[in-house]
Every structure is written in structure tokens, then in C-alpha cells.
Amino acid sequence: MTKALTLLGLESSCDDTAAAVVRRTDAGTEVLASVVFGQAELHSAFGGVVPEIAARAHTEKLDTSVQQALEAAGVTLADLDAVAVTAGPGLIGGVLAGVMCAKGICAATGLPLVGVNHLAGHALTPRMTDDIAFPYLMLLVSGGHCQFLVVRGPDDFSRLGGTIDDAPGEAFDKVARLLGLPQPGGPSVEAEAAKGNATRFRMPRPLLDRDDCNLSFSGLKTALLRARDGVIAEKGGLTRADRADLCAGFQEAVVEVLAAKLRRALSIYLEERPDVPTVAVAGGVAANGAIRAALEQVAAEAGAAFVAPPLRFCTDNAAMIAYAGIELFEGGQRDDMTLAARPRWPLDRSGPAMLGSGKKGAKA
Amino acid sequence: MPSDPVVLSFDTSAAHCAAALLSGDRILASRAEEMGRGQAERLVPLLEELLAEAGLGWDDLARIGVGIGPGNFTGIRISVAAARGLGLALGIPVIGVSTFDAIAVDAPGRAAAVPAPRDQVYLKPVGGSPDLVAVELAADAAFPPAPATLTEAIARHAATAAAGGPPPAPLYIRPADAAPSRDAPPVILD
């Protein structure tokens, strides 16, 4: 019988301010409360997340989020074993606010502090929701990230590949802006794509000619812009049917590229002969029905189980941070009051940097 | 144990990390370290050192005064976020004190000015609202004292301020610098 652990988690690395209380016992893991305050309306006029606006909002919302999560969970700080906080990677102003709020709570209560990598939070979520065993293949696909990881332990990740430029969620947002659809772009582009003809505008399939697990979405955005401008040059605008067809063509390209790269990642992962071959997805883009269906099919063809946590734990949340904190805490991790917020923090410390490998190091 | 309630104050609104402990009229301990970066890593250890120096623990505090700026945006967020976390866990009032109010503790009745980037200042005229203006317009204003004195003034102001107001929030003066998206939506024909 291992000790029951109850952790508070804080998350503020992008545009969601979140707090959660998660408890793990021998019987399993229970999310006692998960509070998320989104900032979509603060950023909507700017067509994307504005770091300074996000940082301002997090600073004034974190403690309220914590209070609400504790109340909803029916616990007090005295019932906790530790506090876990996202310490990176992400927008540094928000990460800093979370880290400082967590330090304040820990200093005042004497509770241990556990700094968590935001990406580890996403990558460990399928263990929180479905109790899957290591090692599993993880596709993390969101507005800010896109990578294939073999997850071997709470602090042991191998990146097989990832995007060399933009994340697919970012591309969906850009497409929505280019076509006058509401933000966030994922759901609105998906809804339009369902009405459209994917064969009318032929979009590229970037990097499919390369036998690796890397992806690229930047050129796809440009291709969509060109196709849109072609129609506008001809007619002086877009019809709703044109717009739906553009969305369908774009989405199909994303689906095909992700599916093909998952097939490659799976073949590498299966060489390890895992006992229970499992593919898990996380991130907001995994909520896209067409993408999810394609990924599920690729997993089934390879004889691997497919796990997609519920959407509220797929998108940014603090339950995943509290849960990752539990696994790291059990492994002995304790951070002191000098814990630093890190804008860049790759999960795979041995793999070559893929993004922003400048003097400040790899992004993610 | 001091007889009067103990106020902890701290400030990271500029290139420093400063904190003070006040009980009644008496400063029990005070620290200020110059630093261009690293306040987020230094702040809480510095507060713990300060408490240890005064022979006090977190539970001995009656309230917290936190510097809310104006000043370095990241700096004021570091202190405000930490103060709100402390206040939540300790269940004591947390008073946000602007640098203008802190200046007025030792220079009452004068316009107050805080240095800002690009030869500008945040200027608060007597009885008026603060704004970002050219430094020449602040010739008669009082500027912030050295960080140690500033944080002591924050403690003194916080000690007498009314509790029960809204939680402390950074004083930015200016809205976030952000431009609307340049992607113009297309004309929809039907």
C-alpha cells in the first residue's frame, strides 16, 4: 500500500489560467477539482495570444483559481502533500506568475514544491485518465506543439520527431483568420471542412517524402493563402462553398501528414516490443474528429491500442500538472524556492534540438 | 516577539530585490539587493532570510505590503503573484502599495515620479492621475528613494492602509502594447 498523495497543480504557460487538485491512491487517480479560466476573449481582437496580455491576466487570476479548486475539491491546503506548478516551457510572463504564486503558497505552508514541464503534463495525462503502462507512443499536437515522444517514465522521454516550424493548432488559427472564421480556428475550420470538397484545392503534403517523423505546417498556410487569393482574384471574394472547400483541402492535408508520420513513429516504437503497444494523443488538435479518426485507424492497423483523454484534459489544464507532480514527487523530486521559470525546456535532453536551437537553446 | 503587529513588505519593481519587516514604528529588518535579473529566484529566499534575521516565522505576520509599481512589468508581476500566493496561504491581508504612495510617505504633498524607459517617467501630479510623460515634465517631482527606504515606506503605508479592499494588482499605467491582426478577412460573396 503506497501512501495516498494529494497535490495542487497550477498552470499558466499560455492563455489558460488553471488550478486543480488531484489525488492518487492504490485504487486509482481521481481529479478532485479542475478549474480553467480561458482568456480567449482578451486575445480575440489580436488574432492570437498576446504574451503581455496573457501575463497580466494570469497574475490576477491564479490565486482565485487556486481558491476555487480547493473549494470545489473540498480540501484545504493542510490536506495537500505538495504543490506542482508549470515551470516551463511557455510564455515566460505567465509561467513566472504561476511559479511565484506556487512559491508563495509553499513558503507560507511549508509544502514541498514540484516544478513540472508543461509538455510532461500533457505526455503523462493518459496515465492519469487511463492508467496506461510505460512505454507508450505519444503524439502531442496542440496550438503550440507538435511532437512524437516515446514515454518511458515520468522524467524519461525520447522524441522521435516533431514540427520544424509551426504547430498545427497555430495553422488552424491562421487559416481561420485568412478565411474570416472565428477564433479559435480548430473548431471553426473543422465545421467548415465537414461541408466542403477536399479535392477541389490540392494542398501540399510537407515532408512526406522524408523517411522521418518530422513535420512542417508553415508551407501549408502559404499554400492556403495562395489558393484563397486565386479565388479572390477571379471573383472579388469568396463564396461560402469556396471557403468550405479551402477548409476541407487544408484539413485533409493535415490529417494525411499526421497519419503518415504516426505510421512511421509507430514502426520505430514497435521495434522496442512493448508489452501493450499503445498510442496516446494529447493537445487541443486531438479534439479534431477527422484527425482523431485517422490516427485511431493507423493505431488499429498496427495492432496498437489508442488512448485519447477527454478533451478537458487534452487541452491546457492544471490536473495534468498536479498528476505529473504526483509521479515526480513519488520519484523524489523536490524544488526549492530558487526554482526558475523557463521559457524553453525540451523534454528530450539527449535528442537534437528541432526548434529555435539558437544561443538560448531549444524551445521544446 | 514584537508587541505590535508585524508587516512584511517587498518590492521588485526595478533593478532590485528589496524587503522589510515593520512592527509599530520600528523596522525590525530590511534588505535590498541590486539585481538586473533573477528576482524571481531570489525573492522568496531573501524573505526567508529576513524573517530568520528577525527571529520570526511566516505565521507571525499580520499583513503583507507589496510594491505594485509602476515599473518593470515582469518585476511587479513577480512580487504581486508571490504576495497573492502568500496571502492566500496565510489568510492575512495583502495590501498593494504603489511607488507613488511609497514616495508620499517621506515626501507628502508633492508630485511623484518613477523612472520609465526611453527618457520618460510615470508622473503622478498632486491629486491627479498618473501618466507616462517625458522626463522634463517631472522637474519638481519627488523620485523613489533607494530600494531599502522604498520597501520600508511600502511597509509603513501598508501598516496604516484599510484592509479588505480588492487584492493587489500591478499598476501598469499603460495598456499592453499589442497590435490587432493584420490579416483582413476576405469578402464573403453569398
Helix content of chain B: 25-40%
Main beta sheet of chain A: 5 strands, mixed
Order of helical and strand elements of chain A: EEEHHEHEHEEEHHHHEHEHH
Please provide the ordered H/E string of secondary-structure elements of chain B: EEEHEHEHEEEH
Large-scale geometry of chain A: globular
The main β sheet of chain B shows up as: 5 strands, mixed
Report the sheet-strand fraction of chain B: 25-35%
Number of helices of chain A: 11
Q: Percent of residues of chain A in beta strands?
A: 15-25%
Q: Which class of the largest domain in chain A in CATH terms?
A: Alpha Beta
Structural class of chain B: alpha/beta
Instruction: Classify the secondary structure makeup of chain A into a structural class.
Output: alpha/beta
Query: Which assembly state applies to the chains in this document?
Result: heterodimer
The helix fraction of chain A, in percent, is 40-55%
Describe this structure as you would to a colleague.
The complex is a heterodimer of chains A (364) and B (190). By secondary structure, chain A is of the alpha/beta class. Chain A folds into 2 domains: 172 residues, ATPase, nucleotide binding domain (Nucleotidyltransferase, domain 5, 2-Layer Sandwich), CATH 3.30.420; 177 residues, 2-Layer Sandwich (Nucleotidyltransferase, domain 5), CATH 3.30.420. Helices cover 43% and strands 19% of the residues of chain A. Chain A is built from 11 helices and 10 strands. In chain A, the strands form 2 sheets. In chain A, strands 3-2-1-4-5 form a 5-stranded mixed sheet, sandwiched between helices. Chain A has a 5-stranded mixed sheet with strand order 8-7-6-9-10, with helices on both faces. Chain A is globular and about 65 Å long. The relative contact order of chain A is 0.18. The mean pLDDT of chain A is 93. By secondary structure, chain B is α/β, with parallel strands linked by helices. In chain B, the strands form 2 sheets. A 5-stranded mixed sheet of chain B has the order 3-2-1-4-5, with helices on both faces. A 3-stranded antiparallel sheet of chain B has the order 6-7-8, with helices on one face. In chain B, helix 3 crosses helix 4. The radius of gyration of chain B is 19 Å and the shape is globular.
